Structures are given as C-alpha cells and as structure tokens.
Amino acid sequence: MSFEGFPVEVSPIYEGERIRREDMYVEFGGGKVPHKFELVLAASMEEVEDESVKIVGPDLSELKEGESYPLGILIKVAGAKVEKDLEPVIERRIHLYTNYVEGIMHLNQRYDIWIRIGKKAFKKGLTSLSWWGKALIRLFKAEMPFIEKMEVTFITDPEKVKEWYDKAIEIYNARDARARAIRDEDVDTFYGCVLCQSFAPQHVCVISPNRVSLCGALNWFDARAAANVDPKGPNFPIPKGKCLDPIKGEYEGVNEVVAKRSLGAVKRVYLYSMFEYPHTSCGCFECIAFYIPEVDGIGFVHRGFRGAAVNGLPFSTMAAQTGGGIQTEGFLGVGIEYFRSPKFFQADGGWARVVWMPSELKERVKDAIPPELYDKIATEKDATNVEELKKFLLEKDHPLAAKIREMEAAAAPPPEEKPPEAVPAAGVEITGVPVGAVPAAGGGVRIILQGAKISIKKLIIKRVEKK
Ligand code: SF4
CATH code at 174? Predict the structure, then answer.
C-alpha cells in the first residue's frame, strides 16, 4: 500500500506513539471536551461518495495551537457484504488505523475519543484533517476488502458536533440493547477479540451475550459478524464447551482458547467475577471495578470522572494497576453495558456488593440498579473517603452493613479491659493519660498514652560487643 505524497509516514510502526501535552499541536476530545464521537454507518452504494473526505468546520491550520476542540468522525461505508452488524466492528478499527499515522495519537472509542496531533507532524505538512481521512480510507479498504465504498467526514464545528453527538449516543444505545434479548446459556459459541494485544500482549477479550467487551464497542452480535466476514482478523469464535462453574462463569472452551491466544499466560478465566481468575483488562475499559476491603464492597469509576474515587485514587492511577493484559484480583476493566447484564458480578454478590460510583455513572446506569438498592449506593456527593463511606452504608442499611459492623467489632480493642498503670523507671518521668492497652507481639502489654510527655534526666548509650 502506498502513501506516496503524504506529508507524514503511515505504518504500523507508529502504533503506540505517545504525544505529550507539550508536543501536541492541538487535541480533539479528551476529558476537557464534552462532545466528541466516532461513528460508522452502513449505507447503500448510492449514498456513499467513494474516497471523499469532508471537513465541516475549521481545519487543522485554522485552529489555535495548544487548545482542545470537539470532534466528530463520521464514516459511511457500502458494499455487498456490508451490513449493520459490522458498523461497530469497522468503527473500532478507527483507533487502530489512526494510530498508524505518524504524529496522530488516538485513544478510547465511541463518545469518549481523545486525539492529539503532534507539532512535528504539523510542521511536516499535516496541516489538514484530509490527510488523516485519506489514510483511513486506504487502510480500511486494504484490510477490510468487503468495504467497497467509503467516505469520511470530520466535524469540528462545535454546534454540529453537539447535534451529531446526541444522534450517535442514540445509535450506540440501540446497538447495545440488541444483545440484551439473549443469554449466555442460549448460545454454544462466544467470540474473542485480540485487537488490543498490540499494547497488552496477553489480553484476550471474551465477548458473550451477557458480557460486552470491556471497551464497550463490541457486543456478541458485533463480534460474530466480524469473525464471519474477516476470519483472519482479530475476532474469532470461542466454542464455549463444558460449563465448569455457572456462577463464576468458567467454561472449558474459554479457558482453552484464552490459554492459546495469550500464549499460555492466562489459563483460567471467570467471566462473572473480579476475584481469583478475573478477565484480563487491556486499557480501553470504559469503567474500572475496584474492591474496597474496609467495607468488603465493590466501587466503580468511569473514564470521564475527574478527581479521586472513594479509595483516594483517580481513574488514571487505577487504570495503570488494572490494565496491561494481566489478571489483577480486585481490579477489573468493564464495559458500561455489563452493568445491565443478568450476570453482573454474579459470583461476587452482584448489585448487593456495589457500594460506590460517581453520580454521573450512577445516573447513566440507573435503569440497571435494583430500585431497593439505588439510595444505598454512595456517590462522590455522599462519601469522598472510606470512613465516610462506612458511615453512609451503615446509615442506609446497605446489604453489607451487618458485615461492616462485624468487621468493626473484630478490629476494636476489648472495651472493658482496664489498662495497667505505667510504672516509670528511676530517672524517667511520664505524664499523660493512659487510654488503652493491647497485647504486644512477643508477649506482655503495650500501653497507649495520650498527650504524654516523657522527660529523661540522663541517657547513657553503651556499645555492646558481640560475642
Ligand atoms: S477492548 Fe477487547 S473488544 Fe475492545 S478492541 Fe480491545 S480487545 Fe477488542
């Protein structure tokens, strides 16, 4: 494939290229920009103006250096084999192919995209979004030959982005809703995705009817369509085989395929639990589930949440701990649609184990939360640290309240035990109030003094020779 005449190179070697803030010319989307999206729509042959790239709003050269802007990427595709089921599959590859372009960094997906254009690339001549569009068309047509016609529109006009953003959200929601009608028990085959192995080499997404991909972009129907139309691509069937544990979601076929595709790094996977053998997480997850040992509960934080979660950690810190394709007990990347799954953390207690999530996320998945638990799940408005969370859960009589009381009682010192009096040695004066005593390691008693002053009249330090 030739990219002759392009101002920058286009090659898989640029995948993984990071553009830091000080090196960026401009950025599109990301946390500071509320409206951004990428959307692929299947259309008829007549509706697509092949190989055309349109820009609605200011182009790169008209933007102010160092600023963040809204962006909509709208792609229309047509072809005899192009069907609606393939829209999300093609859409997910925007991330991959954009990252082949030298000087463009693309992160995340759907309504959450974040793109940076590097200063160096801009200086080399990447002064128009049309280069990016042309590169996408060539790459898509070469890698997905069933796409016969393709047209790309970049929308940078803020009003138009907002208009299309609302439509895009409706389309994403409709796609997600399709998979809700079937259950894991109804099918013999799940599907896998290894698109993210380029940066998380052991990661294998297992996509079942009740478990959407953790990036949220592919459900079971999408992955099936992708595996059928492009059998050599990153999506493949997983015959689920014998069910080894229906509660934890362990399947013989899944274990076998995951072991093979992760080159033996991951041998067992529980699809409905974040403990023991959780699903691996790459880095594209929409949300992170995190265990909070102090209340024995599960918290969630989504990518767009700014600030620290109730455990004191922001999304980015937890993402570093969760991602990379390794199994991390107590941390798990999930897609937002998984909140609506009947298998939602089934082995860990499901919704009854959920204790905290940002208010924005709680509102977004409101329809999935059992009504009797809705007010018992804290947000950042109710609790910003674990002590406040405990208090909230006890006050609201959360299903974990009894467990929290038990844990607190076990940790408290025996109330009736009277602390022994401290006897000062000669030459040592101690003043203060003894407030408690706990057994000391190795025997004896450790006395706790509050507000104590210790004055020592004479201190002799002697060297002791080792025999
Ligand atoms: S997160 Fe999973 S489904 Fe999504 S692109 Fe990566 S590997 Fe594929």
Answer: 3.30.1650.10
Residues 151 and 215 placed together within one structural domain of the fold: no
The rounded radius of gyration (Å) of the Cα atoms in the chain is 28
Give the residue among 253, 380, 281, 416 at the shortest CA–CA distance from 338.
281
* Domain tally, the chain: 3
416: in domain? no
Check pLDDT > 80 for residue 424: no
Domain carrying residue 106? 12-179
pLDDT tens-digit profile of 289-326?
Answer: 999 999 999 999 999 898 999 999 999 999 998 988 99
415 within domain boundaries:
no
Q: Is residue 168 domain-shared with residue 304, that is, in the same domain?
A: no
Domain boundary among 160, 179, 198: 179
Top pLDDT among 439 and 289 is at: 289
Q: At what angle do helices 87-98 and 129-143 cross, to 10 degrees?
A: 120
Q: Report if residue 459 sits inside a domain.
A: yes
- For ligand 1, the distance from its centroid to the CA atom of residue 221, given in whole angstroms, is 14
- The pLDDT of 163-186, averaged and rounded, is 93
Across 118-130, average pLDDT: 98
Per residue in 105-117, pLDDT tens? 999 999 999 999 9
Alpha carbon separation from 88 to 139, 191, 195 (Å, rounded)? 17, 15, 14
Is the CB–ligand 1 distance for residue 196 below 6 Å? yes
Backbone angles phi, psi at 343, to 5 degrees: -100, 10
Q: What number does the ligand 1 atom closest to the CA of 95 have?
A: 5
Q: Which residue's alpha carbon is nearest to atom 3 within ligand 1?
A: 213
